[in-house]
Amino acid sequence: VGPYVLITPNETRRNQLQQVAKKELDDLERWKEEHRPGPIKLVPQRLGGKESETQARQKQQIMLMQSKYQQKHKREEYVKAKKAAEEAEILKKKAVQREKAERLEVKRRQQEMQRRDTFLEDQYYKTNELLNRLDLGLPKSDSCQIANCGPESTAWTRSHTYKQALREDENRRLEEMKQEQRRKAELMEFKQKQEEEARTRAHQNEQRRVNNAFLDRLQNKTQPNSTYQPGYSG
After folding, report:
1. What was the pLDDT predicted at 154?
2. DSSP string, 23-88
3. Closest residue by Cα to residue 132 from 106, 153, 159, 168
């Protein structure tokens, strides 16, 4: 250990500090004694309101049960809303698929009608071509100067009459098929329009139902103090 200096304590200074501290402690005790609060004097009265402890406990239990039922009801409403939204999405997808199938069916029918028209026109042209080839070896009408020109004239007349009748029959059948196709197209368009209106109404009803359910849930949230009856779903 290195050298050190020993300082003798000042006994006078220490005594003065101890006296001052003692005086402050005495003053503090005296002040506490003077400012001590007196006894409280209250008029006896009955606390707890008009209900007994048993009634208060029962009421508290009922409120707890109602709170549990309300939470359960909210969970059920959430599950129902989620399920309704999923069903609406599924219905929407089904409607889209149905529309695609209907468009494909309309396209297929149109192609079928177009192929039938092409076949009828081709048949008509081939029939005319065949009749024209048959007329090549027969005499013309202006070559007959007499009313009765013989068996060749009679054969030509029969061929000409048959060809004209055949053309008229082909034209008539073609016109009937065109009218039938036109009626089918009108009927298909009317049916598609009805289905589109029905889908629109169904979508509007579903949207209205979802909106009403949302508004009901919102109204239930904005009325937390409303009484709730167990088993009642609104």
Report:
1. 66
2. HHHHHHHHHHHHT------------STTS-HHHHHHHHHHHHHHHHHHHHHHHHHHHHHHHHHHHH
3. 159
pTM: 0.31
CB count in 10 Å sphere of residue 186:
10
d(CA 155, CA 144): 13
Kindly calculate the radius of gyration of the chain based on its CA atoms and give it in whole angstroms.
55
Distance CA 86, CA 47 (A): 55
pLDDT at 122: 81
Report pLDDT for 119: 84
- Ranges of residues in the chain with a pLDDT under 70 are 1-2, 46-49, 134-156, 158-160, 223-234
Burial class (CB in 10 A: 0-12, 13-18, 19+), 6: exposed
From CA 138, how far away is CA 132, in angstroms rounded? 10
Tell me which residue of 219, 229, 215 sits closest to 73, measured CA to CA. Answer: 229
For 39-79, write each residue's pLDDT tens digit: 878 787 766 567 777 888 888 888 888 888 888 889 999 99
**Contact residues for 166 (Cβ-Cβ < 8 A; gap 6+):** 127, 131
> Looking at residue 231, what DSSP letter applies?
T
Buried b (16+ CB within 10 A) or exposed e, 18-53: eeeeeeeeeeeeeeeeeeeeeeeeeeeeeeeeeeee
Check: CB of residue 166 under 8 Å from CB of residue 127: yes
